[in-house]
Structures are given as structure tokens and as C-alpha cells.
Amino acid sequence: MDENKTRSKHFLLLVYQSFGIVFGDLATSPLYVYRSAFAGRLRHYQSEEAVFGAFSVIFWTLSFFSLFKYAVFMLSVNDNGEGGIFALYSLLCRHGKFSLLPNQQASDEELSTYQHAGYSNRSVPASSFRRLPDRDKKSKLALLILVLMAASMAMTLGVLTPAISVVSSIEGLKVQSNDLNHRIMVALAGVLLLSLFVLQYQGTHKVAFIFSPVVLLWLLSIAALGVYNIMHWNPRIYEALSPIYIYRFFRLTGIDGLISLGGALLCITGIDILFTEVGQFSASSIRVAFCFFVYPCLVLQYMGQAAFLSKNFSAISLSFYASVPDAVFWPVLVIAILATVVVSQAVLSATFSTVKQCHALGCFPRVKIVHKSKWIDRQIYVPEINWILMVLCSAVTLGSQDTTRIGNAYGIASMTLIFITTSLISLSIYFVWHKGLALALSFFILFGSIELTFLFSSYIRILQGGWVPLLLSSIFLFTMFVWHYGSRKKYLYDQNHKLPMKWILTLGSDLGIVRVPGIGLIYTHLANGVPATFSHFLTNLPAFYQIIVFVCDKTVPVPFVPQKERYLVGRIGPKSYRMYRCIVQNGYKDVNENENEYDFENALIMSIAEFIQLEAEGGGSGTPDGGSIGGRLAVVKSSENFGKRFGISKSNGFEGTSSSSLNITSSKSATLLKLKMMYDEQESPEVKFKTRVQLTLVDTRYKDSFVKEEVMRLMEAKKFGVAYVIGHSNSKAKWNSPFLKRFLINIVYSFLRKNCRAPSIALSIPQTSLIEVGMNYTL
């Protein structure tokens, strides 16, 4: 009984919280829908029949897409509970074999989040069309471009949504002051938007509790206004709920009515967030909130505005605020401004998440992903994107003469995203759920044909502001594609130039070099083999650390990787070589919540120690090291006893053992230790105040003396410090490459690499422990 009561409370809490994140954009659409719909030549149809017809179009558009397509069907589609464009792409990569991600391994399929009941394709006959991804690699590239196009439109919405929402809310001041200059309103909107972007770094955890109450109050207000306008101006508006009024509308307006669909579709802007945020809440909580509260409130508001306009058509330019009674005008204006701020915040958070997912899939230049433990779950902040969006949003706001032009741009971006989502769902029906091709085509025809009609009416308005999303999305798409192209060429170069295990074995256990105390982490994109970076380092400096770990930070096409399955550890060469491999698996939505590098170092050391123990017990599953000769790579998962032999202590500043590339913390040299501490303090003053997490081996009882000796050596090396070795590459296309390839690699990709974050920043590598190895890539 208590358990059911707890579940009910949790469910109601999810319903309540969803108002502030999911429905803000959809709820503020009444501010500008009618004005955008009646822009252009449709404003010449000043009759009750035209207004009734426009409301009927809006009502059935809202019902068909929001209620039927998204609330009923789309919310049932998920990838381990997650929704959105990348969830669909992930499903197609895993079950449709469309993946272009590097380092794909058979061990990926062993993840608990990889396979799902009903999604397996092993028992499905492989038709010629289902084998298309295997036969034609261009189909994989085409799908990736389609997904990146959707992502670029989502980023464009991150520019347009704050602009149209905030400007539309502030335009209500015109109702009370006809002499108010447009520039003054734009300036007020600009100040509000700048404040919103500047405060992003602080996070929204301190004010997030007011998001849901603000949107709830807004929905109740517009519903009450709708009921008032229906009763006061034209109770007959309920007749327009009949679809017959759509036929009458197009019979009356003809081609002008078709063009007006580009404005009417703004009533469904934001419905993609229902699908995107399903993982943060739940499908049932979003359905309940939408069907029983949001949808009725919106229908009442659109009916009320239509009733008002049927008697006051001259007020179409400010239809929402003109329909607000004077007695409640100022409270409604304040609530509207607050609601649009909440909407803008939610859209910016969604844009940061989109960029993060693109980056995880290797399709976006390196950026800094900021997440703090005190922030809201899954909330991230990307500084570079925040400032770019601020500049673009300010430019759109200052450059727009009115919100109608922004609305035209907004409609194109939103409907393009909706149409691409429909296309991906159709592909998923066939390749993921293995339904018939006829069913997939039927779904696409049912929804896609209607969406294409809206798209056509939107693209007619390209010259009236519709070019903005096309320009912005083209820039975003081009940037992402070039980064993916250059990164993939680099990976293929590394794959073709990796060192054979035979070369490693011929060097002997000391590798023909001086082995100094400490641990060296060599970062590589390769999940198997030894990267050329290692040989390049030894060629120029024939000395390396006692313990060598090749670290591959890879993304698996799943939303999240459970922590216990994140580290895959193996051995390279015989035990005497003291060389290991660690593959750090991440999902495309995983957020690194470690506040310092010591958490990663300790987790890595414990994973290697656990691997050593399991290897001795025969618990590791051996798999050949790709391209190796005579060597084996054993990959294991963390066991139930993981970490129980270790103790963790915390210290501040330079107390205790330090982790640095200098590795001079020997007790025999107090002078060198002092010099090292001075170096760390000068190079990174913040280290002085950082909490350090020290790892100690508490339980030293091992059945196998060789296991104990190897683990003790590992811990001893950890005391001397950990160094991070990464490649500092310079990429150039071959001199005889086609002109387009040389342009993309030598100019565009090179420009992006020089102006994005360094690999050490993107990987959160401490600068005082960093060693960079110069590498030239001829692609």
C-alpha cells in the first residue's frame, strides 16, 4: 500500500515538473500564431468565416500532430527510455547497422543497454533492402547527414525560440502605449536576452523550482481568457471545431489560405520537446500533463482569440494582448514575460544537450562540457555555444522588423525537424522493429504528406525571413560534416599505421628503453593495437613509465553506459611488459560528473587491479588483440567485489601524494619535491585549493603471490604519479588529392581544429600532468 502511494506521489511529481521543461514552448505559441497566420494577403479576408476557418485549421493541426502523433504514438518510441533524434539514430545504428562510429567491437553488444526485447534482427529474414547498409556505405552517410540536418535545425531553434518568445511577450506594451517605438521594445528584449545568456553559467538549480508554477499559472491564465472571450464575443465559435470549416476556409481563400499554413503551424512549435524529454520524465507523465491540462488550455485560448477576432479583425496584429481585458492586462503581461524566459531557458538547455550528443558521436568540434553535481540532473553548459547563440539571437532580435519574420523562420526550422523525425521513425519501423515495408511507407505517407504541405507553405516565405534558418542550419551542418569527415580520416590513418604486436615483442620486457617509476596513460582513438604515437615518443625520447596504459575513450551507440560496465581492461603482451589497455565506454548522453582527475585515475587503477585478480582466477574473457601476433587482449567487467580492497582518503592542496608528469615525489629527494610543488602552484594556482582523493590498498591478502606482487607494483607506481600522453596532430591532405578534399582538410578542418578546445580540455586532462607528442597526419 505504501509502495503504491510512493509511486503515485512520484508520478504526480513528474507530471508537475514536466510543465516547466516540456510544455513551455507549446504553451506560449498563442502569443504569435494568429498574427503569423493572417500575415500577407490573408489579412484581406476580414470575415467571420475566414476567422472560423483559421481556428479550425489550428485546432486540427494541434490535435493531429500534438495529440495523435506525439502524445499517442511518438512517446511510445524510445531507446532505453530516451527519446529524440539521436535516440532514433542510435536504434538504427545498433539494429539497422547504419553506424559510422569508429572502434565498434563485438563486446559493445554485451552492454546491458545495447539489446532490447523485440529489437533483435537475428531471427528476421534478411531481405535485399534490409542488407542495404552492409552493401552500400553511402546509405550510412546519407542517414548521418539527415540526422545532422535535424540537429542543425534544433540548434537553429535555440537561436529563434528565445527571440520570438521574448519579443512577442514584450510587444504587449504596444496595447497600452501606441506611441511606443519598436526600437525601444527590441532594446528591452535584447537586455532580457543578454541577461539570460550571461546567467547560464550559474545554472538554473536555484530558480528551477519556479519554472513549473510559472507555466502552470500561464496555462490557467490563457484558458480563463479563452473562456471569457468565447462567452463575451462569440459563443458560436465552438461550431468551428468541425473540420467542415477547413474546407470552407480553403474554398474562400484559395492559394492564400494554403500559404497561411506556414503561420498556422506555429501552434505546434515545441512538440518535438515532448519526444526529446521523455527520458527525463516518462511517457505516461507527459501524456497525462498534455492530454488533461495543456491541450484543453490551448484549445480554449485559440477558441477565445478566434471569437475575439471574429468581431475585432482590425486587432489582428496584437490579437492576444488586444483580447486581454484591461483589468488583468498587467498581470498577464508579467506572467507572459516570465513564461517566455522559462521557455528560453528550456530551449537553451536542449540546445546544449544536442551539441553534446553531436560531439559524443564525433560530429562536432571539441567543446568544454560543464556539469556540476549541484545542478539539475542532466543539465549541462557549453560556454562556446552559449556565446555563439547569444550573438546570433541578438542579431536576429535587433535585425527583425517584427515577429512575423521571426515566425516565418521559426516555422521552417520547426517543421523541417518534425519531418526528419517522421522519416527516421519510418526507417525504424522497418529496420529496428522489423515490420513490413508497407507499414513503414504507410506511416510516412500518413504523416509525411501533411508535413510536406506545411513545409511547402513555409518555404514560400523564404524571402520574408525564412532564409535565416536555412543559412544558420547550413553553417551548422557544414561545420559538423567537415569535423566528422576529418576525424574519420584521422582515425583511418591511425588504424592503418598502428604498430604490430610482433614489433613490441621483439623489443623485450623493457621495450629497449629506460623504464622510470610512475604510470603513463597514452590516449588513443584505437580500441586495439598500439598507436603510432607510442613509437614516435620512444624514437625521440627512449624512456617511459614503469606502467603503460593505453586509454581509448569511445562512444557506444547507447544513451547511457552503466558505471559497472564502463571500464573494459585488458593486457598487451606478456605480464612482464606491464602494459595494459583500458577502453572507457560512454553513451551519447553520458555526462562526466567527476569534479577532478583523481576520480578517473582511482577508478582506472581499481579497474586494472580487478582485471589482474580476475585474470588469475580465469574470469576474464579473452579476445584476440586486433592485428596482434601472439598477444591476447582480455576484456572484463567489474565484479561484485570491485573496489572493496581499496580505501579512499581526501586531502586539500598539496597535502599527500601529488599526481604530475614530473614524477619526482620520491622521499629520497625533498628538494625535488619542493621544486615540483612550486611548479604546480605557479602553473595551476587552483590546484592549491582542490580536494584530492587518495587511493590506498587496504586489503593485501591475495591467494596468488604473483597477483599480489603485480597489484603492489601498480600501487607503488601510482604513488610516483600519473602522466597523460596525447598526440598533438597536424593534418594535411595528400598533395595529389582532389581540390575539394584539400580544401576541406587543409583549410576548413584545420581552421576548426585550431579554434576549438584542445584535446586535453575536452578530456579534462590536468595540464600539469600532460605530455603532448607531435604527429603529422597525411590524409
Automatic annotation (TrEMBL):
Spell out the coiled coil positions from the record. none
**Bilayer topology annotation:** Multi-pass membrane protein
Ranges that cross the membrane:
12-32, 52-72, 141-164, 184-201, 208-230, 250-275, 287-308, 328-348, 380-398, 410-432, 439-460, 466-483
Q: Which GO terms describe its molecular function?
A: potassium ion transmembrane transporter activity
Task: Quote the InterPro entries the UniProt record gives.
Answer: K+_transporter, K_trans_C, K_trans_N
Protein name per the record: Potassium transporter
Output the lineage of the source organism.
Answer: Eukaryota, Viridiplantae, Streptophyta, Embryophyta, Tracheophyta
Q: Which organism is it from?
A: Linum tenue
| GO cellular component annotations of the record | plasma membrane
